[in-house]
Amino acid sequence: MGKIFKGRKIIIATKHKKENVIAPLLTKYLNLECIVYEELDTDEFGTFTGEKERLNDPLETARQKCFKAMELSGCDMAIASEGSFGLHPTIFFVPADSEILLLIDKKNKLEFITSEISTKTNFNGSQINSYKELEDFAKSVKFPAHGLILRKSKDFNEDIYKGITTIRDLLTAYKTLMSKYGSVYAETDMRALYNPTRMKVIKTAVKKLITKIKTQCPKCNAPGFSIIGAKPGLVCRNCGAPTRSTLLTILSCQSCSFTKEKMYPHGRFFEDPMYCDSCNP
Q1: Tens-of-pLDDT digits for all 281 residues of the chain?
Q2: 132: helix, coil or strand?
Q3: Which of 102, 109, 246, 249 has the most CB within a 10 Å radius?
Q4: Helical (H) or strand (E) element with 207
Q5: Are 244 and 281 in contact (CB under 8 A)?
């Protein structure tokens, strides 16, 4: 695996300083030389504030970023992340940060993908009626360590004040918008360079990706031997009936297509009766 990556260059497809958490890890664990192309404008693939709509799903958007970065730089390897924010898919009514991370090795025709969903996010927004309300909102979302965005209303895509990280700029933007429109909508700036909490989630995703890459295929030794599917059927400890919990995972190599099943991937041989449809219908 070391021969595939050692000494090669990889471009980090970002304009929002994600290299601060991505580069040190790729350099340390994969021996890659990380570069950033300053002229790359990833906002063309969509913005959180809505001026540019994201037309594709997060994975395809990350893929487009990678290919654009490789095209502009002449590099044959790229990495990109794409974040989405909203309610957690399983923990209802709890906001979450969902990060997709993609590394493309064009030379060896390989793709490595991972994701991380975290409830550790300050993602929020609120219509503001007074400066006191704005101060309270700012405090609740960890301002000024985390940036803010102000505009007239949630879906108004003109006169947007982004990257606010000082009381002075916050007050100026508030006064300007109130004077011009009589209303203000405040929201968290979710761009990575203005959101340390999000940057930590990206860092976690990078660590997961590195672990995946460093897992070699037992047949051909190619990197990225990883889970592509799972089967339910872990039996109930009480009645012995199969449950919907995972019995085995299916791992595969994208280089030689070798597959392998791993029984009891979570180290449990039986499921708790509370998760059994027969014991707890």
Answers
A1: 557 888 899 999 999 999 999 999 999 999 999 999 989 999 999 998 888 888 899 999 999 999 999 999 999 999 999 999 998 887 878 999 999 999 999 999 999 999 999 999 999 999 999 999 999 999 999 999 999 999 999 999 999 999 999 999 999 999 999 999 999 999 999 999 999 999 999 999 999 999 999 999 999 999 999 998 999 999 999 999 999 999 999 999 999 999 999 999 989 999 999 999 999 87
A2: helix
A3: 102
A4: helix 196-213
A5: no
- Distance, in Å, from the CA atom of 155 to the CA atom of 49, rounded to the nearest integer, reads 8
Helix (H) or strand (E) holding 82: strand 77-87
| DSSP states along 11-37 | EE--SSSTHHHHHHHHHHHH--EEE--
CB-count exposure of residue 119 (10 Å: 0-12, 13-18, 19+): exposed
User: Which domains does the chain possess?
Assistant: 2-121+193-213 (3.90.950), 125-189 (3.30.1490), 226-275 (no CATH)
- Which amino acid does the sequence have at 47? T
Name 250's bridge partners: 229, 261
Q: What is the pTM of this model?
A: 0.89
Antiparallel, parallel or unpaired: β 9-12 and 77-87: parallel
Question: Prior bond to 144 cis, omega within 30?
Answer: yes
CA distance 224 to 134: 47
C-alpha 260/C-alpha 226 separation (Å) is 10
Nearest to 79 by CA among 61, 92, 66: 66
